[in-house]
Amino acid sequence: MDIATPIPAFGPLAPDLQLDAQGRLRHLLTIEGLSRALLMELLDTAASFAGVNEKAVKKVPLLRGKTVLNLFFEASTRTRTTFELAAKRLSADVLNINIGTSSAVKGESLLDTLRNLEAMQVDMFVVRHAESGAAHFIARHVAPHVSVLNAGDGRHAHPTQALLDVFTIRRHKPDFSSLCVAIVGDILHSRVARSQIHALNILGTGEVRVVAPRSLLPASVECLGVRVFEDIRQGLKDADVIITLRLQRERMDSGLLPSEQEFYQHWGLSAERLALAKPDCMVMHPGPVNRGVEIDSCVADGPQSVILEQVTNGIAVRMAVMSLIMGSMAGGEA
Amino acid sequence: MKTLISNAHLFDPAQGLDRPGAVAIMDDTLVAVGEVPADFHAERHLDAQGALLLPGLIDLCARLREPGQEYKATLVSETRAAAASGITTVVCPPDTDPAVDSPAHIELITRRAQYGSGVRVKVLGALTAGLDGRQLAEMAALKQAGALGVSQALRPISSPVLLRRAMEYAASHDLTVFLHPLDASLAGSGCVHEGPVGTRMGLPGIPQAAETAALGVILALAEQTGARVHLCRLSTARATAMIARAKDDGLRITADVCAHQLFLTQHDVADFNSLCHVIPPLRTEQDREGLRRALAEGVIDAICSDHQPHEADAKLAPFPSTQPGISALETLLPLSLKLVSEGVLSLAEVITRLTRAPANILRLPLGQLQVGQAADLCLLNPHTAYCPQPENWHSQGLNTPFFGQRFAGVVTYTMVAGQLIHSIDARPI
Predict the structure, then answer these.
(1) CB contact burial B255-274 (16+ within 10 A = b; e otherwise)
(2) Of A124, A138, B176, B419, which is the most buried if we count CB atoms within 10 A?
């Protein structure tokens, strides 16, 4: 018996969670999928806020009357502090909740925690969580008036870090199409690297490289739009920007590397290796830095390093993201 | 009681049936298939109205959640879902809470099943005590209590030597060993296929080697011990090639795949869709094609549901914290029929892999329209549209990615041992 009946293919893809119907930023969950125009708008807005941060009175009233909640399920100093400063400089009220490790939330599901906080009439959640997809999950379930800003979820994304990195690069080297950027270190576990790769590719960067031993590279990483180098000498050759990533001590225990010393010898950024890159190559690091593991102190503190400038720029970039999201939420011409 | 089902289109590849006809049932047994003797005076007469009369489906893996997880589902709710889907026999894996490692647990499930819809509930016993992977379970006692085989479900086994001993011991009791080829240490904390989608989402991956490495050990030990092994829930094309070779070498092995692995891929978990969080994970298009080809070639013997009903909260968390599994009894037949409309298998091949093949794996005298066999039947209107929705869903678990999709094929009657356990008034088109 013939039962061939045409049946439509499986359902449509979910609409982009982080944009509203007009294509404006509703949440910021990941860099992936954002348009170049939106990234440029964010960077331009950040540039205008950078001026505010240099004034004696560092405050603008854009978020007056709004409440921003820093919801950190994972420890952070730099990111949480710069988010707090950014919100305060926009005149928002800021609450910090450090939920810490999962033991603190035992007995209460993430959704219950959210519902309780939502009931406090918060306008924006800034969320850091150890699990990939946590910010998406929260964005999918928050009340319509709440925006979610991802401050790092598992290995997935850290969009504001990537934005501040490309912002820093653009201040020194505005033409991305001519740049070669090498990201060195633990790509496998790095949400920062994933977001940087997306941001750099959206901005049309000439070449994005990742440099790491195979045990620290995710499967099929080239699909993200990078060239893979296992040899650091080749990977750094003629680079315009080098981004080193933090190597966490746990990696040695899980058998991904033999020792910090061996990693430093083969993939650490020393002055000698930096010399392989272009003479004006910028050295970046999202922090916190493990001196003598992924980067030599003399390079981290050297004239080519912009590591502290990255931290400063983090405030302006986070102000830009918050103001753009609040602008779209207000329904205005953001 | 004498029952007559007339005006049916009898369809059973095992019996070479594909023609209009009738069946006669005396109490629980088929007494005539095709032509019914004129002197058969039925007390009950069902008009099939031209629909397909199939042997009842046999599902090699359905978690009914009893005992221990009644908040997810119960034997009552899930056997009702099975009956509504044309499934007349379900096999429960032993990973309940506590695990099915003693005759008392089997008795409990069997007794509880009496309050169900009437679907036959069969169990696999635990391979190791408490499924702890360290000490053998009392397999002989489990067999005596009714276990159709032994299984470690998805729990790891401490070492290849223990697996070897377990296979030898099971063989001594003529028990089939049901094994999931998944190396626990290679799988690690993975929750998706290790590949581009998992990399993009930053989710820890389960490499294909977690399946092929475990399968290599199982095949080597099957050859060494001569045990009869059934391989559960394949997910990679490479594994099917290894099984094809092992079958050619004469190993006593069989294999199954669950229906959703034949349709979904790693791309369906993009956007962190926890409804598509399953173990083994959804893999690549090439794997899906390899599984379909292996099914068509008979390398994979059977299709099962791998039914795993969950409460809503189990899927409401960041992706890695959600519990894997799909509530799948009610999409087993619709998805399988879609293989026919997509030209992967003939209807005869699909029905074989849902009836006679699993019956052979379980060594049960079921799964055929044969005089003398139990009257376990399913009446199917293959062209009637079916769109699963929470409103027409029977399982307590609403965790399916298939809500709202359109399928063809509605089961109008399900019968177990001559008892009508499901019927709806839907006219064939």
Answers:
(1) bbbbbbbbbbbbbbbbbbbb
(2) A124
